[in-house]
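Project standup — Tuesday

K.O.: blocked on the structure for the chain from last sprint. Re-posting the sequence here as requested.
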Amino acid sequence: MKPIAPVITSLVVAIWLVAMAILSVQNATPVFLKFLSFQSIQMPVGVVLAISAGIGLIGGAIAQLLWRKSDNPDRLPGSDSRRGKAYQVSPEDRQTW
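H.V.: unblocked you, prediction finished:
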């Protein structure tokens, strides 16, 4: 199952890029963004889409790095013990079949 994940990810990114390209070619008129009292310069829709997609990709990459950093790989999930030093059963406590 793992080798197919990069293929699916690449397909999704490629489809989004094609959709952005088609949309930006069809809407070549300049637009401006307005947020509260701030207003951007006029630029084509394709540039706005490319900047938005770039910010989203960078933000997603940073969020993924922070998410992985918050997960302590040295800890077992749902346990206070560390890997390699988990609860060990003594020979007397083991069941013999």
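K.O.: great, moving the ticket to review. Residues 16-70 form one domain. Helices lie at 4-26, 45-70.
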